[in-house]
């Protein structure tokens, strides 16, 4: 790569050579932002596609996402980015509905009347559930939720029985055996994102249209985007070794890879410099069904104690419409990447989960299932420990030209496209500050600015 830093104080990132590791939405947003600021950017992605969890596959005459996604009206950072690349008008908004399946029984779960008819809870518990849910954000204000276990908080405000019958299974499905220990701040922040909003968005042309728009923006700014380009090593001096044996050098390297993945690539000096934060990660096993008929019409339905291995059903066609006459349904189970389920053969999972889905919906038959695809992802979200805000690693790796923009840095925001874009914006700001003449060198940059910019996990306007 070519280019040199300008000497004048207003130059900022102009001419700074930056290698971005990882082509998920955070890496793409970073490459877009840095390219527009004048940096000479090269983005490298190991797989054949960009998008991370937003990758897709061809199906008939369309592209279909491997994992489900939606855009929320509160996703300000993402929507602003889509505006910049001319893709915001692709998002089509639609009201959606939620359901709940408990002990094999199906319930709508959208209105006060639905709640009053929700018989898994006693009448006084339904009233308590509704009142507490309306006040939960307010009840969390002024409390140190980062150091308060989710179980302790929710047991206290909802009561033991609501926790044990309803909330514990739902949190257990998301975080596994550690579910009760997750900081209550995570849930509080998630409520701020969703804000009881029933309207969701999906881009016309699918998420590939958004990814293509971001790639075009990077390339129009003079950046290089390389897919099927695995990294085999990263040095403390900023050298990136590719699988081909080629070595790329840059003024700065920004890694969006999960910290365990980056650690496996780091040379000894970089490994010693990396933050010693070893978070457990939840992966996901996800099955996508192409059905000849719709299910309940509920976009999202948690599945509780109903004889299935999967613990949630997303009817994507309730949001995105039919796909060539087929209704898309995602079912998922969050699980450790070392679990037996994660390691199991995809065809066996597809066959077993087909039987479970047919058994869960009385009007569905095996003949209604046109096709099933199984996809897995090992690093979906960290399982954060109590007090993680004080443990959260800085963005700048001291003594090196490396910066980090990972899921370990978005807390307490929910891992999403929006929080990834917000983090990318703020890391780009840290990098811009570090390279400006007259500022402290980026290799000696303290954590104070990082803490200021990343207060609230890279999403400070939430909450």
Characterization of the model:
By secondary structure, this protein is of the alpha/beta class. Helix content is 35%, strand content 22%. It has helices at 25-36, 76-84, 112-116, 123-140, 150-158, 160-175, 184-194, 207-220, 259-265, 268-273, 317-320, 340-343, 346-360, 388-391, 417-435, 447-453; strands at 17-21, 40-44, 56-59, 62-65, 91-95, 99-102, 105-108, 199-203, 224-226, 231-234, 239-242, 247-249, 252-255, 281-291, 300-304, 312-315, 327-335, 369-382, 402-404.
Features:
about 475 residues; alpha/beta; 7-stranded mixed beta sheet; 5-stranded parallel beta sheet; 19 strands; about 35% helix; about 20% strand; globular; disordered C terminus
Short description:
The two termini are 42 Å apart.
| Unreliable runs | 1-10, 439-463
Largest sheet: 7 strands, mixed
Q: What is the helical fraction, as a range of percent?
A: 25-40%
| Radius of gyration based on Cα positions | 23 Å
Number of helices: 16
The rounded distance between the terminal residues' Cα atoms is 42 Å
Global geometry:
globular
Mean pLDDT: 88
Strands in their spatial order, largest beta sheet: 7-6-15-16-17-14-18
Structural class: alpha/beta
- Count the strands? 19
Strand percent estimate: 15-25%
Question: Topology, please?
Answer:
Elements: E1 17-21, H1 25-36, E2 40-44, E3 56-59, E4 62-65, H2 76-84, E5 91-95, E6 99-102, E7 105-108, H3 112-116, H4 123-140, H5 150-158, H6 160-175, H7 184-194, E8 199-203, H8 207-220, E9 224-226, E10 231-234, E11 239-242, E12 247-249, E13 252-255, H9 259-265, H10 268-273, E14 281-291, E15 300-304, E16 312-315, H11 317-320, E17 327-335, H12 340-343, H13 346-360, E18 369-382, H14 388-391, E19 402-404, H15 417-435, H16 447-453
Parallel strand pairs: 1-2, 1-13, 2-9, 6-15, 13-19
Antiparallel strand pairs: 3-4, 5-8, 6-7, 10-11, 11-12, 14-17, 14-18, 15-16, 16-17
Helix pairs in contact: 1-8, 1-15, 2-15, 5-6, 5-7
């Amino acid at each position: 790569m070519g280019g040199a830093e300008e000497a004048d104080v207003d130059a900022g990132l102009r001419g700074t050579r930056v290698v971005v590791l990882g082509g998920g939405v955070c890496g793409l947003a970073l490459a877009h932002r840095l390219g527009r600021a004048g940096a000479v950017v090269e983005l490298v992605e190991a797989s054949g596609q960009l998008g991370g969890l937003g990758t897709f596959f061809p199906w008939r005459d369309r592209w279909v996402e491997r994992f489900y996604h939606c855009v929320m009206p509160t996703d300000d950072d993402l929507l602003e980015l889509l505006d910049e690349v001319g893709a915001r008008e692709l998002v089509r908004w639609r009201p959606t509905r939620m359901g709940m399946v408990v002990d094999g029984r199906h319930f709508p779960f959208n209105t006060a009347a639905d709640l009053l008819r929700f018989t898994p809870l006693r009448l006084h518990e339904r009233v308590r559930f509704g009142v507490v849910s309306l006040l939960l954000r307010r009840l969390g204000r002024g409390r140190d939720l980062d150091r308060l276990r989710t179980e302790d908080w929710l047991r206290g405000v909802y009561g033991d029985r609501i926790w044990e019958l309803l909330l514990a299974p739902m949190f257990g499905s998301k975080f596994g055996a550690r579910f009760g220990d997750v900081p209550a701040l995570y849930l509080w922040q998630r409520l701020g994102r969703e804000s009881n909003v029933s309207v969701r968005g999906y881009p016309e042309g699918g998420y590939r249209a958004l990814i293509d728009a971001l790639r075009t923006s990077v390339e129009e700014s003079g950046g290089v985007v390389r897919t099927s380009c695995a990294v085999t090593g990263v040095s403390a001096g900023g050298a990136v070794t590719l699988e081909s044996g080629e070595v790329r050098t840059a003024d700065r390297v920004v890694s969006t890879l999960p910290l365990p993945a980056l650690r496996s690539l780091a040379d000894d000096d970089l490994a010693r410099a990396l933050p010693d934060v070893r978070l457990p990660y939840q992966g996901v096993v996800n099955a996508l069904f192409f059905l000849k008929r719709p299910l309940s019409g509920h976009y999202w339905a948690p599945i509780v104690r109903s004889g299935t291995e999967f613990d949630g059903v997303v009817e994507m066609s309730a949001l995105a419409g039919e796909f060539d006459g087929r209704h898309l349904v995602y079912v998922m189970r969050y699980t450790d990447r070392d679990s037996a389920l994660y390691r199991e053969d995809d065809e066996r999972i597809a066959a077993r989960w087909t039987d479970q889905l047919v058994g869960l919906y009385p009007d569905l038959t095996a003949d209604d299932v046109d096709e099933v695809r199984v996809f897995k992802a090992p690093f979906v979200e960290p399982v954060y420990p109590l007090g993680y805000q004080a443990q959260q690693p800085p963005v700048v790796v001291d003594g090196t030209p490396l910066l980090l923009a990972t899921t370990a840095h978005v807390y307490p925001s929910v891992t999403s496209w929006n929080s990834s874009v917000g983090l990318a914006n703020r890391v780009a700001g840290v990098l811009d500050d570090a390279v400006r003449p007259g500022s402290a060198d980026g290799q000696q940059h303290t954590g104070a600015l990082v803490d200021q910019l990343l207060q609230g996990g890279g999403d400070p306007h939430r909450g």
